[in-house]
Structure formats: structure tokens, C-alpha cells
Amino acid sequence: MVTGFSDTAALDLLHGMLRIPSPSYAEQEVAAYVVDALRTAGFTAGIDAAGNAVGEIRRGPGPTVMLLGHMDTVPGDIPVRRVGDRLYGRGAVDAKGPLAAMICAAAAAAASSGFRGRIVVVGAVEEETALSRGAVEIRRTHEPPDALIIGEPSGCDTVVLGYKGKLDLRYEVRCEATHPSNVLPKASELAARAWGELLALLGPDASHARFDSPGPTLTSIHGELDTATAEFSIRTPPGFDGEHLVKELSARLDAGTLEVVNAVDACRVGRNDPVVRALSVAVRAEGAAPRAKVKTGTSDMNTLAQKWTVPMATYGPGDSALDHSDREHIELPQYLFGIRVLTRALAALDTHLSGESR
């Protein structure tokens, strides 16, 4: 029997998830907790080869809607505590809050007598890492759903239409050991010079503040006179030619090797995307004015959009300005609001997609 979550049970679910530390590569305990919650709600659930928690339920013939959020967090302990309507804890917004909201909404929608179709809920691993292994495994082992909602903190009244892509580079250089006063370039100098050449290639308009411009970051640099390594991350707009950039940068570097560590394209859907419309209508039905935005980071939406051309958008309660911060917390009324929005959106998608399939 499928059962929904009361408000109290929904708060308990999130509180329990926050109490389990789950930095990337150490998600096993929280995955087991999520699976248990899904099974208690009536879903068939288990842990896949990558460590993802996956639950599903079918309520008759109909479309498949997938809800995917991530269980891993960045490192750092934040004592789990409730202060008024705020619940503090690592992952409260990024992204256990959105994932817990998805679990509750999926259970509520599946328990509805009017829902026909299949719901898949995924708690993904390693989203906070370069390779997003959890989402890659879902993409490899699951057929594309009829609609996809990614769980990330967008704000309870906002739908995210897209994300910049990412190009991660590593530059390594070795030089003959020499005295510091020797005129020959040193490895540490060459690594610093590589960062300057990258900035020159990207041009003066490069910025993290704009969706349509590349945004570079010097993520690390370690060097001595004879060896040095620098790592660069470029957030890339739609249509950005990463291969050309790598080729041009390599040509400007006199020594060493430039390696592409990871690359993922930008993604963006339109305001008329069925998932965007369903979420926006649901926000309005709950009494708020829906907003839409694009984000200059990346998410598992990028990873799945590389292969899946299905209706999709990102939504989740929580203030993304608190991502990775020591003040990370979620406003509990907004969390409950997000559950109601997702529940309405699932019902709307079921009706819309079922009508299309007739």
C-alpha cells in the first residue's frame, strides 16, 4: 500500500537525512536510510551498482516521471538543529532538502487515486565531484523517462531552466632543476603563466556573473622550481567550443601537458517545456508568483541532458546562496511548500503526458 507523508513525517524524514553525514564517496548510510523511507512509503527500492538509492512505483499504464536529487554533500560538519522555522545541517539545501521533498511528493502523488503511470525517485551519489558518477550510472542503466525533475535548491517559487557547462583542465610541467637566479623559466612560473594565457584566450568579457559568457576559476596551483601542477575550471555557456579552447591553449604552452579532466555541456530548456509549465502552474496554485532563471553552476541536469532529450527542469526548496556555507539551513515552511508544488506538478505531468500518448 502506498502512503503519503504527513507534515510531521516529512520534517522527520529530512531531519533524519541530515543527521547522517554523507560527503561524496561516503553516501552508503544515507542511501540505506532513503531506501528504507521509500519502501515504507510503498515503493520498490534498492541500491544500484554506483550506490544510488533508487525507488519506483507503477500505478497502472502511463508515462514515467523521474525525480533525481543527490545525497552527497561537500565536507564539513554543521550541527543539526532546529531554530524556529529553520533547520540547520550540512545538505539542508544542497541537496537533501530538495531530495526529501521529492520523496514526499512522489509518495503523495502515487497514493492519489487519479495518478496513472510510473514514478522513479533517485538519490544520486557523487554529484559534488567532477564526474557525477551517480547520474552517469542512471543515464547508462535507465531508459529516458517521459519527464525529468532534478532536485536542487532553486527557491520554492523558482524553476531553473538551465545550467552552464564545465570544462576542467589540469596542466602539469617539469623542468630541469636549476638555481633560482638562472634565466631559464621555472616550473612554478610556467604554471602561473598558463593561467594568464587561459584568461587571455577567454577575453575580457569572461565572467561567472553571466550565463552567456565563460567563467574561469584557478582551482589549485602547486609548484616548485622543477615541477608544478595547475588546475583550471571553466564554466561554459551553450555552444562553447571547448575543443578549440584546449587546442589554442596547448599551442601557447611551451612545455608540459594539458589534460582535459572532465567536460560537460551547458543545458537549457525553454519556458514552454512541459516540466517548466507544470512546476510554474503548481507554484501559482500554491499562491506564489512563479519565476524562472538560469544558473552559472552545473548540476546533474547537465549530465543527463547530454544523452536524454526529454522534458526537464530543476526545482527544489532552499536558498542556493547557502550552498556549501557554514550557515546552511532550510526554511521549513518553504520545504513543505516545495512538497506541495512537486505533488501538484507530478499530477499535472501525468495528465499532460498521458494525453499526449493517446
Task: Walk me through this protein's architecture.
The chain folds into two domains: 7-163 and 266-357, 3-Layer(aba) Sandwich (Aminopeptidase); 165-264, Alpha-Beta Plaits, CATH 3.30.70.360. Helix content is 34%, strand content 26%. It has helices at 7-18, 28-40, 96-111, 133-141, 187-202, 242-252, 274-285, 300-305, 332-357, and strands spanning 44-47, 53-59, 64-70, 81-83, 86-88, 117-124, 147-151, 158-163, 165-174, 215-223, 227-236, 257-264, 267-268, 291-295, 312-315, 329-331. The strands form four sheets. Strands 1-2-6-3-7-15 form a six-stranded mixed sheet, sandwiched between helices. A hairpin with a 3-residue loop joins strand 10 (215-223) and strand 11 (227-236). The two termini are 28 Å apart.
Give the tags:
4-stranded antiparallel β-sheet, single chain, alpha/beta, Alpha-Beta Plaits, 6-stranded mixed β-sheet, 358 residues, Aminopeptidase, 16 strands, 2 domains, elongated, 26% strand
